[in-house]
Design goal:
Structural class: alpha/beta
Strand order of the largest sheet: 7-8-6-5-4-3-2-1-9
Helix content: 40-55%
Distance between the termini: 28 Å
Oligomer: single chain
Number of strands: 15
Length: 377
């Protein structure tokens, strides 16, 4: 199985923390849609022997598109790719775009999963992040969406400056009361060259504190598991039957094609990414040339990628798979390197699988980096 990610590089306004590629000008929207359609056709041979079971519209803000435009893109995926009988087709949406009329038209389309970018149910947090929606719109959009979509997920952000544990708990409890079957939650990170980074440097916003984020994450895991959600990947919590196919395709190393400016692709051996510039992307695609850079992954790169992604998931890292796919030297290095973290109760072995403990969960990316191997080909 494989997946297709379609990047919609338009937003109404820039969130202060965001470093994804987007434009607040819709002037080239029609040309962009035609370029996306053209890229889908140009790359169909990459998946000629694969079945697509996920289409994911990310961004940017895909919900700024008209439903007819979204349908046109989906139709072209079906035209050029072999699709599974029950694909997961997700649209990221902002609450301010989700009127009942818009939700009904989306429900009548091939979209079968909505990912709603709430981030917080508090006005103070939304203003700090420069989100386009209000807390009232967040609540209303979810209440409306769940009337039409069984499969909905919402995004929340924790570790926001000024957010104490009690406010974070209120956020979680509000999400649970709304009954969505899946929640993704991310620590606020300060990316270079963002407005948030500038405001923190100037002192107008308090710094993001790792200790607060770690406390919030521990609260999150406890609350979500108590409510019957499985923490199947570090940032993702789903009820049984509602784990995201798209999310797991990334964490399980499946092939995916990224369509659109700034979109990334992966086939197990190579990683590629398109130019993050709308005019350059459109011009190149119009000429029939893919505007991308390609990195061929070494065995070491692929081992490191495997460890990083699997350690974040409930499946853990299989020592058997490491030995069979990468060789004895990688297996032995992993076992030796993991030992000190096992002794510190950050990792544990269960059979042939290496997992992160609850104590080590928030540190999983750092633990993974310590298991990376840098000096083999």
């Amino acid at each position: 199985m494989a997946s297709i990610y379609i990047h919609i590089p338009f937003c109404k306004q820039a969130c202060h923390y965001c470093d994804f590629h987007f434009s607040t000008s819709m002037g080239k929207k029609e040309a962009m849609i035609q370029a996306l359609i053209h890229e889908l056709e140009l790359r169909k041979e990459e998946f000629k022997n694969k079945t697509v079971d996920c289409i994911y519209f990310g961004g940017g803000t895909p919900s700024v598109l008209e439903t007819e435009e979204i349908n046109l893109l989906i139709q072209n995926v079906y035209r050029h790719y072999q699709m599974s009988k029950t694909p997961e087709i997700t649209l990221e949406a902002n609450p301010d775009d989700l009127s009942e009329t818009k939700i009904i038209t989306l429900h009548d389309s091939e979209i079968n999963r909505l990912s709603i970018g709430v981030q917080s149910f508090f006005e103070k947090d939304l203003r700090l992040m420069n989100r386009a929606h209000t807390a009232t719109e967040a609540l209303t959009s979810i209440q409306l969406a769940t009337n039409y979509f069984t499969n909905c997920t919402i995004d929340l952000i924790y570790g926001i400056p000024g957010m104490d544990a009690s406010r974070w708990i209120e956020n979680i409890e509000q999400a649970l009361q709304l009954g969505v079957p899946h929640i993704s939650a991310y620590a606020l990170t300060v990316e270079p060259k963002t407005a948030l980074e500038k405001f923190i440097r100037e002192g107008s916003i308090a710094p993001v504190e790792d200790e607060v984020a770690q406390e919030h994450h521990a609260i999150l895991v406890q609350k979500m598991e108590a409510a019957g959600y499985e923490n199947y990947e570090f940032s993702n919590f789903g009820k049984p039957g509602f784990h995201s196919k798209n999310n797991m395709s990334y964490w399980e190393g499946k092939s995916y094609i990224g369509i659109g400016p700034g979109a990334h692709s992966y086939d197990g051996k190579r990683r590629a990414w398109n130019v993050s510039n709308n005019p350059k992307y459109i011009q190149s695609i119009t000429k029939g040339v893919l505007p991308q850079e390609v990195e061929v992954l070494s065995t070491t790169d692929r081992y490191n990628e495997y460890v990083m992604t699997r350690l974040r998931t409930k499946r853990g890292v299989s020592l058997v798979e490491v030995k069979s796919d990468y060789g004895d030297s990688f297996h032995d290095y992993l076992v030796n390197q993991a030992q000190k973290h096992i002794e510190d109760h950050f990792l544990f072995l269960d059979g042939d699988r290496l997992y992160v403990t609850k104590k080590g969960k928030f540190l999983s990316d750092g633990l993974a980096s310590d298991l990376f191997l840098l000096n083999l080909g």
